[in-house]
Description:
transmembrane, seven-stranded mixed β-sheet, transmembrane helix, 8 helices, single chain, 1-acyl-sn-glycerol-3-phosphate acyltransferase, Glycerol-3-phosphate (1)-acyltransferase, 15% strand, Plipid/glycerol_acylTrfase
Amino acid sequence: MKALRSLFFYFTVVWxxxxxxxxxxxLFYITRKNEWPHLCGRxxxxxxxxxxxxTVQVKGLENIGHxxxxxxxxxxxxxxxxxxxxxxxxxxxxxxxxxxxxxxxVLGTAMLxxxxxxxxxxxxxxxxxxxxxxxxxxRNGTSIVIFPEGTRSLDGKLQDFRMGGFVLxxxxxxxxxxxxxxxxxxxxxxxxxxxxxxxxxxxxIGKPIPTAGLMSQDRENLVNTVRQAIRENLTESEGxxxxxxx
Length: 246
């Protein structure tokens, strides 16, 4: 049964990426705005969660305002983090994403249509140019989502944070909102086979952490503050402080 569900999920991922990707591209060329393509992204996330039999419980929506731009910083356990955030975070935002994803046919063009920003981590000069572009978007009222760990965790535990996203926060001077994603590792680990395990993902949105007035010398303290805020809503086996469920 799990194998059949997994095959259905992968079939859905392929066709939903093509259909919603083309729709996002078309809507961008018609409207020249990113808002409508983003709705295609939200539907894409919800459809793929449904196809995998995964539900998402969201807590802490009262901590964010729709009128304010934020930098959302989330831990990264699984592919399903992307589906969960896209499908269940009810605000307009853009991703800061690794450049390789933009080379995938249809998906890459759709990401550009959504206003997502590629970052080349192998080229320091290009990476800083991307961060400057992202900071400008945030200052102009557009929220950005980042994964400070940079890549999915191999064992589900919270990893060390890279500095790029925090450079973005300091450049934009806008608040960072910590997002704790719990349970997605059990759905589809980075290394654990191809089968999907239906289940529940907890998405907990923390209170905004101010960055106004902070400077480069404050970056390390900011990293520690955000990391601890994410840990507060993760279980011990995920590198957090909550007890594991029995």
